[in-house]
Amino acid sequence: DDVALLQTVRDDAVTRFGLAPDRILVAGYSRGGGMAWDLACAQPGFGFAFATHAGGFWLPLPERCAEAIHLLHSHGFTDNTLPPEGSAMTFYGQNYTVGDIFVGLALWRDIMGCPLAATHSSASPDLWVKHWTDCAAGSLRLELLPGGHNRRTDWPEAVLDWAEGLPIGEPRGPAD
Question: How far apart are alpha carbons 157 and 151 in whole angstroms?
Fold first, then answer.
């Protein structure tokens, strides 16, 4: 049970190091990004925000998540390792299917009560961004980058800048 293990590690770190639970940012890359999506879905209170690159839900997709979250997801448009549109793969003799990122994002938009169209979009040769900030609860930011599975070099800094701009203590709550 990965979620239970991560909760135990988090609780221990909060106790040992005096971390503020409402200031924990969960970030993951590749399969770690998928784990962050799973964690956000099952235990949204684990962190105040979640940031992922090249990782989302694996199939089967959850039917519903516990509550709305703040999510930043970035992905290489030509990622052939974990393509945005999903793919089948085999690890240690087990077959898995990586879900379609856009289907997963639609699930998050539904949970958060976001409109179909993004609140704000921007594009440059290096980054295509869509924001959903007028959701009933939580927020969503999607970044598509040129290239494959490699994340942008300034990703950690960009994630921190995004997270620092979020309202702390804002009730995420289930969307209506």
Answer: 12
Give SS3 for 155.
helix
Distance CA 141, CA 118 (A): 9
Instruction: Provide the whole-model pTM.
Output: 0.91
Q: Are 75 and 53 in contact (CB under 8 A)?
A: yes
Determine the Cα angle at 22 with ends 32 and 102, to 5°. Answer: 40
Give, in order, the Cα–Cα distances in Å from 76 to each of 30, 85, 147, 148.
Answer: 11, 11, 5, 5
Q: Residue 97: enclosing H or E segment and its boundaries?
A: strand 94-98
For 47-79, the pLDDT digits (tens) are 999 999 999 999 999 988 989 999 999 999 999
Q: Are 72 and 47 in contact (CB under 8 A)?
A: no
CB 121 within 8 Å of CB 131 = yes
Q: Report which of 29, 41, 7 is spatially closest to residue 158, judged by C-alpha positions.
A: 29
